[in-house]
Amino acid sequence: MKYTLGKQERLKSKKLIEKLYKEGSSVKAFPLRMVFLQTEHTSEYPAQMGVSVAKRNFKKAPDRNRLKRLMRESYRLQKEIVYDNADKPYVFMISYLGKEEKEYHEIYTKMNKLLHLFVSEIKNKKNDEHQS
């Protein structure tokens, strides 16, 4: 598997983002929250992702951009967790909820926890479908 995060793997569609926030489920590993939705998308990859940092918590754009960069990087290195377990296409948005900047290793650890929570959530949904 290539550890890249190309254009095809990024969530850019305004319609999909709108649908995601309307119909999606979420998991949290503070300071990160993932809103996800199982839906078709234009990419051949199993998942498309986006990142966001609230302007109300970080007024300066360089601070927001740095956090988004750290979040993308920690996802890029651990995306195999999602890719190995997602049998259907997913879109998700990862938001930074904290009010102060965390170090990269903390974000990396929380991203790992968040991705494992996501995988267990989709496995639970799959088991619920099989039982009903």
Topology (SSEs and partners):
Elements: H1 14-23, E1 25-29, E2 32-38, E3 47-53, H2 61-78, H3 80-83, E4 90-96, H4 104-131
Parallel strand pairs: 3-4
Antiparallel strand pairs: 1-2, 2-4
Order of helices and strands: HEEEHHEH
The biggest beta sheet is recorded as: 4 strands, mixed
Average pLDDT confidence is 93
Strands, total number: 4
Multimeric status of the protein: single chain
Give the CA-CA distance, first to last residue. Answer: 35 Å
> What portion of residues belong to β-strands?
15-25%
Count of helical segments? 4
Task: Name the helicity range.
Answer: 40-55%
Please tell me what the overall shape is.
Answer: globular
In spatial order, strands of the major sheet run: 1-2-4-3
Which residue ranges are poorly predicted, with pLDDT under 50 across at least 5 consecutive positions? none
Q: What is the alpha-carbon Rg in Å?
A: 14 Å
Class computed from helices, strands and strand pairing: alpha+beta
Tags for this model:
132 residues; alpha+beta; four-stranded mixed sheet; 4 helices; globular
Provide structural commentary.
The protein has 132 residues and is an alpha+beta fold. The chain contains four helices and four strands; from the N terminus they run H-E-E-E-H-H-E-H. The chain has a four-stranded mixed β-sheet with strand order 1-2-4-3. The longest helix is centred in the C-terminal third of the chain and has 28 residues, at 104-131. It is globular and about 45 Å long. The protein starts with 13 loop residues before the first helix and ends with a helix. The relative contact order is 0.22.
